[in-house]
Amino acid sequence: MLTFAEEFLLLAHDEETGDFAEMGFPVMSSILAGAALMDLALQGRIDSDPRHHLILLDPTPVEEPILDFCLARIAEARESQSIQDWIRALATHGARLRSLAIDRLLGRGILKRADKRFLWVFHTRVYPLVDEREMVEVKRRIADILFTDDIPDPRDTFLLALAERSGLLTEVFSQAVAEDRRERIQQLLHLDLFGQDVNKAIRHIQLAMLSGGHGEG
Predict the structure, then answer these.
(1) Structural domain contains residue 107
(2) What is d(CA 191, CA 174) in angstroms, rounded to the nearest whole number?
(3) Is residue 70 classed exposed, middle or buried when 0-12, 13-18 and 19+ CB atoms within 10 A define those classes?
(4) How many domains does the chain have?
(5) Per-residue pLDDT tens for 169-208?
(6) CATH value at residue 73
(7) DSSP character at residue 94
(8) What's the pLDDT score for residue 73?
């Protein structure tokens, strides 16, 4: 099973360019950090208390590089921190999180690395699709929960929250679709308490960036 970070990158992937949708490095970093925390919660490694502080339940690695990297940082902490604080702290490793998630997609044979010439001189790294089945499946799951009244799987609900928070819904579908399904989206975003905490934390960080800026540490 793909991690949330991998699924989010597939949603953000542009098949034509082999690159990912532009959303700003700090936004991508906070999304990937939140995605990792949600996976760790579903794996039974962490939880949150009534004060929205993160609780370490089990430091045992889960054999997924991006999740184990984040879990190790949490296990090293000496003081309790809120989910928002942890997303902010893990997002300072945004380049590492992105690299770990992309490496897993490469290892699974879903993407490949390529160098693209820019202005005939400069080169940029892109990641063309090798196998589109996983991307198609991720987008289909989001479409299914948007356009039906079924109660979705918690994973799909959280992935929808990441797509909505990052602005990807309008990239994957359209602004008109996102607005038309706004009520449905808001209903779904209230189904999972831990997911709500993560989504709120990402929103707070984004608002802080808009007001004062935020970069990689």
Answers:
(1) yes
(2) 24
(3) buried
(4) 1
(5) 888 888 898 889 999 988 888 877 778 888 888 888 777 7
(6) 1.10.3630.10
(7) H
(8) 97
